[in-house]
Amino acid sequence: MKIISYNVNGIRAAISKGFIEWLTQANPDVICLQEIKATEDQIPVEDIEKAGYPYQYYFPATKKGYSGVAILCKTKPNTIVFGTGIEHMDFEGRNLRVDFDDVSVMSLYLPSGTNMLRLDHKFMYMDDFKNYITQLRQEIPNLVICGDYNICHEAIDIHDPIRNKNTSGFLPEERLWLDVFIKSGFIDSFRHFNKDPHHYSWWSYRAGARNNNKGWRIDYILVTKTMENRLTRALILPEAKHSDHCPVLVELE
């Protein structure tokens, strides 16, 4: 089972840059999208279906042109769950889950902390999300949480840890939360296979950051430890350039 996570930074913009053609070539069984910034009626669902994804689920934000997540599947899931049931998490369209026989896959778009108000919201979201997942895992032990976490976990995950130590996305409190969350029973699938530096999934549009690989690794596929023996491969795919993020991939037996 090949699973990809991709913050497309506007699905319509990504499609105009060749996203559907790339999707056909990448050929995942499931792809989780974040920051779609569109409602289903604004998306060429027929073109995506022709690319091999008849099962498409969209969870947009209430606010037009903002946030939103989606999951595209080759095979029909048993269950689709839109949101978490927690209002402050759900009106921005940040969580969507599909359940298959022996694995559940979630698309997550965790808030960024662009100012103090949003940072407070981010911490509230993080706490409530952790509690939600702790409860969810009691009924769903095999869980894959794909998405843009908007946090670099370790110094190895950011190009300039010294200068960014007081920047949201690399604050000690955010990093601690992610550390505790992973250690609660998850595997960071990319780091399971690759311990090398200079692997990032997001680059600023400014100052040639992507060409100079001055990036941040904020997109993760976390897999519950119950599936450790099923992990076969995990990659970051920086050659895909439809967004300021790039896709990340995991393969499970």
**Measured distance between first and last alpha carbons:** 6 Å
Low-confidence stretches: none
The level of helicity is 25-40%
User: Major sheet: order of its strands?
Assistant: 3-4-2-1-14-13
Q: Helical stretch count?
A: 7
Number of beta-strand segments: 14
List SSEs in N-to-C order.
EHHEHEEEHEEHEHEHEEEEE
Please give the largest β-sheet.
6 strands, mixed
Protein described:
There is one protein chain. The protein is α+β, with helices and mostly antiparallel strands and 253 residues long. The chain has 7 helices and 14 strands. The strands form 3 sheets. The chain has a 6-stranded mixed β-sheet with strand order 3-4-2-1-14-13. It has a 6-stranded mixed β-sheet with strand order 5-6-7-8-12-9. Helix 5 links the parallel strand 7 and strand 8 (143-148). The longest helix has 24 residues, at 116-139. The chain is globular and about 45 Å long. The chain starts with a strand and ends with a strand.
In short:
With 253 residues, the chain is α+β, with helices and mostly antiparallel strands. Helices cover 26% and strands 26% of the residues.
Defining key terms:
single chain; about 250 residues; alpha+beta; six-stranded mixed β-sheet; 7 helices; 14 strands
